[in-house]
């Protein structure tokens, strides 16, 4: 599996662990106030990162592009800015709202870069010696 897929799956599973912990914490406490952080950590973090990782694993010619690594770092930065800010905003820190907005825009830029990669031409991949 290409390095970028490994990175996306590592990021995805960290989001899943934290997202599930948040879900359990909501379920056990009966206080569902952090529903947005839980939903988006699981959907933007676990699900979307796993789809990115799967796409690159199925398209090794795209995984080798420098832009793919830029896309990983931009998207992950967006998650790191957006999700903790959303969590603490939902807990009552309304002043964090602009940070959630900034993080969301960075996430969107990461998705737009992914669109550029999807529509870009594939680069030739040289097969390893001894493999068909
Ligand atoms: C241990 C596993 C999980 C637990 C205990 C859990 C728990 C919860 C709880 C308590 C809520 C609030 C429900 C409400 O107030 O209506 C919720 C909402 C939600 N969860 Fe989870 N969750 C888990 C896993 C997941 C996973 C894996 C995903 C996505 C891949 C997910 C996606 C969502 C979404 C999208 C919502 C919002 C639903 C809505 O808007 O009505 N959850 N979850
Ligand atoms: C930067 C990207 C995103 C932004 C800024 C965003 C923003 C929002 C907002 C403002 C809400 C309403 C929350 C509320 O009523 O309190 C929401 C709800 C929701 N979004 Fe997103 N969203 C994004 C991406 C996504 C993606 C990619 C998915 C699914 C793959 C998703 C699934 C949901 C779901 C299931 C809900 C209802 C759960 C809840 O009440 O929090 N969102 N989102």
TrEMBL record:
Native source organism of the sequence: Phyllobacterium endophyticum
InterPro entries reported in the protein's UniProt record: Cyt_c_oxase-like_su1_sf
Keywords: Membrane, Transmembrane, Transmembrane helix
Top-level taxon of the source organism: Bacteria
Protein name as it appears in the record: Cytochrome-c oxidase
Segments crossing the lipid bilayer: 7-28, 40-58, 70-89, 101-126
């Amino acid at each position: 599996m290409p390095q970028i897929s490994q990175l996306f799956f590592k990021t995805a599973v960290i989001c899943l662990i934290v997202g599930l912990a948040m879900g359990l914490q909501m379920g056990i406490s009966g206080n569902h106030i952090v529903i947005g952080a839980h939903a988006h950590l699981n959907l933007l973090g676990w699900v979307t990162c796993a789809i990115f990782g799967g796409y690159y694993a199925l398209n090794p010619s795209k995984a080798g592009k420098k832009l793919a690594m830029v896309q990983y770092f931009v998207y992950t930065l967006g998650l790191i800015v957006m999700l903790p800010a959303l969590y603490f905003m939902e807990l009552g820190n309304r002043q964090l709202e602009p940070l959630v907005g900034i993080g969301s825009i960075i996430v969107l830029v990461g998705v737009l870069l992914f669109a550029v990669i999807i529509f870009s031409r594939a680069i030739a991949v040289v097969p390893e010696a001894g493999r068909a």
